[in-house]
Design brief:
By secondary structure, this protein is α/β, with parallel strands linked by helices. It contains 12 helices and 7 strands. A 7-stranded mixed β-sheet has the order 3-2-1-4-5-7-6, with helices on both faces. It is globular. The structure holds S-adenosyl-L-homocysteine. S-adenosyl-L-homocysteine binds next to helix 1, helix 3 and strand 2.
């Protein structure tokens, strides 16, 4: 069984790398260097066109929710961006705090593009990117005072290993920020999601190279089991509601359409399931979730 598991995980990693190798250029053409949802004001009556501003707001709201300090003495100095895409968050955080930011992604094309964009912005000595697995990070223990994962957790086949690695590379007292797609929390009477819910998520998993989903409550349980502190979560689904309709509209522009067609079947398959994301949110099945916590300032006595 271990063999089968490894094969599946390797297959998933290969799929993720190929998906982002193929689709990142199209995304960047249309949406820019942030490959994540925007944070919008719910109930705003005016049409919301400035998606880049909404994506920056997502980063700012996540930092605020996590209580990351702007104070020169307390602000983050070393940051890891786990699942860094083409480095949008890394550059933003490096500039905001003057921090040194290291990003990892499975996609070699994303690493190249992240390095090039950073050099263009004069940030080559403030950020660094490499191909590496979030579940086996190429960093020693206790390195980073901010551990950042923006919309990569949903790709992780082993959530316990994922959070354990985030905690391992975190310095004592460091803040960990996970912004990710979850399914709704289960009711006390439920052991699983309903079959129609699972079937909707499976279609999304297939197109976006995702393993099975978990809930915010599952993340809290994992963080507790690792003795992480100040664990907080919030459901930001209402704040991101305008995002997928906007992505779909952009796919129907000439530029969006031609870019999609050029980037090939994997990207097109991703575009075709976009309405299912909206359905998932509307059914209260998909929850856009932030989880933040802190590694204890004093390392715990070794119980081994
Ligand atoms: N955080 C970025 C990109 C989000 S897209 C942004 O907000 O712009 C998801 C990213 O997660 C991709 O870069 C993908 O390569 C990365 N990813 C998925 N699984 C990963 C894994 N096991 N290890 C490292 N990166 C992973």
């Amino acid at each position: 069984m271990a063999m089968a598991m490894t094969t599946t995980e390797e297959g998933l990693k290969k799929g993720i790398a190929e998906f982002y190798d193929a689709s990142s250029g199209t995304w960047e053409d249309i949406w820019g260097d942030h490959m994540h949802h925007g944070f919008y004001d719910p109930g705003a009556t005016a049409p919301i066109h400035d998606h880049r501003a909404a994506q920056i707001r997502m980063i700012e709201e996540a930092l605020r929710f996590a209580g990351v300090s702007d104070n020169p003495l307390k602000k983050p100095k070393k940051v890891v961006d786990v699942g860094c895409g083409i480095g949008g968050s890394s550059r933003y955080i490096a500039k905001k705090y003057g921090a040194y930011c290291q990003g990892i992604t499975l996609s070699p094309i994303q690493v190249q593009r992240a390095q090039a964009l950073s050099a263009d912005e004069g940030l080559a000595d403030k950020v660094d990117f490499q191909v590496a697995d979030a579940l086996n990070q190429p960093f020693p223990d206790g390195q980073f005072d901010l551990v950042w994962s923006m919309e990569s957790g949903e790709h992780m086949p082993d959530k316990v290993k994922f959070v354990s690695e985030l905690a391992r590379v975190a310095a004592p007292g460091a803040t960990i920020v996970i912004v990710t797609w979850c399914h709704r929390d289960l009711l006390p009477s439920e052991a699983n999601l309903a079959p129609d819910e699972t079937s909707l998520l499976n279609k999304i998993c297939n197109a976006y190279y995702l393993p099975s989903w978990c809930s915010a409550a599952d993340y809290v349980k994992i963080a507790n089991s690792l003795s992480l502190e100040d664990i907080k979560t919030a459901d930001w689904s209402d704040y991101v509601a305008p995002f997928w309709p906007a992505v779909i509209r952009s796919a129907f522009t000439w530029k969006g359409f031609t870019s999609l067609v050029r980037s090939g079947w994997k990207t097109i398959k991703g575009a075709l399931v976009m309405p299912l994301m909206i359905q998932g949110y509307n059914k209260n099945l998909i929850k856009f979730t932030i989880i933040t916590c802190r590694k204890p300032a004093q390392s715990l006595p070794d119980r081994g």
